[in-house]
Amino acid sequence: VSTQSTWGLVGPPEDAPILQFDVQLAAEELTAQLLTGVVDVVGETLAAQLLSVDFLRGLLGKLALNSQALQIQDQSHSVTLDGAGVFVLQSCMNHSCEPNCVVVWGPTCNIVLRTTIAVQRGQPLTVSYVPVAASLDERRALLQNYLFVCACPTCRREAAEDLNPSNSEHRLT
């Protein structure tokens, strides 16, 4: 068993700050509370890897980049719980400000990806990580959390035209 792939999710660069979170302290606390039980289940070598600062930093970064906010309501809709989940299919989706798919929530906290336009065989499926109606500057600011600069057709066109980002009549939706 190896901790190398961490489920194949993309993570941030090793030097990226992770939400101002003290990973060293978390590793120490987890080790103090869980070491014996984890060693009993997976052995000493793998337990040391799973509770290491490097593994936890990578895991936290991958969760931060790939998790989806959830709001779960009880059957009477009187209680709403806020949470997060990682959906492998959605985590594999690339971003575009002109997405060809949307994420639709199912009745049991599952997700369904639906195409919004006709998609040709071999054409990448994309979703938007940010509100598509936002201005170029707003989208770029929000996408900083994902550690990339969008170069989709919409962003390239708006940057080239040097539009006023708040002028929504020039936006194609």
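Above is the first protein from milestone M3; the second protein from the same milestone is given next.
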Amino acid sequence: MKGKIMSLDFMLFAIVIFNLISYNESAAPRFRDNAADFIKAGFKKTTRRGVEKQDFTKIEIEASPLLMVQKESFLDKNHVKVEIKTEDGHWCVITGTPSMRGGVYKWTV
């Protein structure tokens, strides 16, 4: 995908998919009602000499998955993944490892 300009449609279809592993197989993880408040996606921004620029070839996705589920014990923090989809395309798993700081996972696509 490098070298291609990514459209806003691409960004809107980016979602976080969790490999939710529970300690009790009969228990199912549940998202909180405000789970969407803990994820954001946008074009990568850089600041050089006080001037902010957007890189329209890269999208940054930030998520706080532990805040998205009702019981964080259902979430395996080592297996959080992102899948993306363009309008008519197929779902594609992002293979890169996210950076993590303060419980916020960050992917650059």
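Note on the second protein: The first helix runs from residue 8 to 12.
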